[in-house]
């Protein structure tokens, strides 16, 4: 296996579109998620990354896979989105969100870095909410701001390694997670689309294509790359 993609949350939405894109470009894919991904060329590792000790269940398997690769791309895509506020966010809930959205990425990096050669990449999936906020999503906003900080630290700490990193920040993307968060209310979805200069939601494949670009272009090392169709600011 010369080229390997390690991706979290690759079974749905942006993650699945990204898996299909990398497969089409000659990568073998290792997917970390609770839901299985039934595609040829994918090694499925079923773990619950919201558990602090998830690494213990798969470290030997992951290390063995990584050691055989000439080039590795890591995409930190898994995330959870809750409705909560600074007024009522429970500390334990925030801890759980940070574990999946931020800490699990650090854990996976530390597991893979000893096997990553020059030309490899670590790509974080942030959000339009990585650099601003909306009401009612306190834990998600906090975690996605932290993702940008982790990416920037990654760029600095890996200087000279030949490994590059980027944080791709999607805008409102037509995924199951977004629709569930909005209660499948088409009126709200239409209003969100109306707040974008292109007048529509982003398709998961568009973000997958952006992640592919980021993984192949070391020139954007340490960069925050917004992919949001041009949001209308008020």
UniProtKB/TrEMBL annotation:
<dbReference type="InterPro" id="IPR036291">
    <property type="entry name" value="NAD(P)-bd_dom_sf"/>
</dbReference>
<dbReference type="InterPro" id="IPR002347">
    <property type="entry name" value="SDR_fam"/>
</dbReference>
<keyword id="KW-0560">Oxidoreductase</keyword>
<protein>
    <submittedName>
        <fullName>NAD(P)-dependent dehydrogenase (Short-subunit alcohol dehydrogenase family)</fullName>
    </submittedName>
</protein>
<comment type="similarity">
    <text>Belongs to the short-chain dehydrogenases/reductases (SDR) family.</text>
</comment>
<dbReference type="InterPro" id="IPR020904">
    <property type="entry name" value="Sc_DH/Rdtase_CS"/>
</dbReference>
<dbReference type="InterPro" id="IPR051122">
    <property type="entry name" value="SDR_DHRS6-like"/>
</dbReference>
<dbReference type="Pfam" id="PF00106">
    <property type="entry name" value="adh_short"/>
</dbReference>
<dbReference type="GO" id="GO:0016491">
    <property type="term" value="F:oxidoreductase activity"/>
</dbReference>
């Amino acid at each position: 296996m010369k080229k390997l993609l390690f991706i979290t949350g690759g079974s749905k939405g942006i993650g699945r579109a990204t898996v299909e894109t990398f497969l089409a470009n000659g990568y073998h894919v290792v997917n970390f998620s609770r839901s299985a991904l039934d595609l040829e060329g994918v090694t499925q590792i079923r773990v619950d990354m919201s558990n602090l000790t998830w690494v213990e269940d798969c470290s030997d398997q992951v290390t063995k896979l990584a050691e055989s690769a000439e080039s590795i791309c890591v995409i930190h895509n898994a995330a959870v989105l809750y409705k909560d506020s600074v007024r009522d966010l429970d500390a334990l809930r925030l801890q759980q969100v940070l574990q999946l959205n931020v800490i699990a990425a650090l854990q996976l990096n530390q597991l893979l870095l000893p096997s990553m050669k020059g030309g490899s990449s670590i790509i974080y999936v942030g959000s339009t909410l990585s650099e601003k906020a909306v009401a009612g999503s306190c834990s998600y906003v906090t975690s996605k701001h932290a993702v940008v900080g982790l990416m920037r630290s990654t760029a600095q700490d890996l200087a000279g390694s030949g490994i590059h990193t980027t944080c791709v920040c999607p805008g409102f993307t037509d995924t199951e997670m977004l629709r569930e968060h909005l209660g499948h209310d088409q009126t709200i979805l239409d209003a969100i689309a109306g707040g974008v200069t292109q007048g529509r939601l982003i398709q998961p494949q568009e973000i997958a294509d952006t992640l592919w670009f980021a993984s192949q272009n070391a020139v954007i090392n340490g960069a925050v790359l917004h992919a949001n169709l041009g949001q209308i600011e008020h």
